[in-house]
Design a protein that fits this description.
Elements (H helix, E strand, L loop, with lengths): L4 E9 L20 E8 L5 E5 L11 H11 L4 E4 L15 E3 L1
Parallel strand pairs: 1-4, 4-5
Antiparallel strand pairs: 1-2, 2-3
């Protein structure tokens, strides 16, 4: 379990998009690729990566999924640093961790 300060970010893993000229290529959020969430502890440099699966409403990478991943990887009162992805806003309402 990580403690103190951790960084959280996501990436999307999958094949290269087809080269069909009539289709717009999507990258990152909104693709059919599989999201992987990484949690890195700043002090030790250790990383935990988790594949985010679809939730009950067939959505990928929701705030509730992010909270679950962070709870599995971090102790209470951990400071979490993330990017501006709206899914991380749910961390602002939880007293278990500080969100920057």
């Amino acid at each position: 379990m990580f403690e103190a300060i951790v960084e959280v970010d996501e990436t999307y893993v999958g094949g290269k998009p087809s080269r069909d000229k009539n289709k717009k290529r999507k990258r990152g959020r909104g693709t059919t690729k599989t999201p992987v969430v990484g949690v890195k502890e700043r002090s030790s440099g250790h990383v935990r990566a988790v594949v985010a699966k679809k939730d009950g409403q067939n959505k990928m990478l929701t705030g509730r999924q992010l909270i679950g991943i962070i709870r599995q990887a971090c102790k209470a009162k951990t400071t979490v640093i993330s990017d501006e992805f709206p899914g991380y806003r749910i961390l602002d309402n939880h007293k278990e961790c500080a969100h920057l």
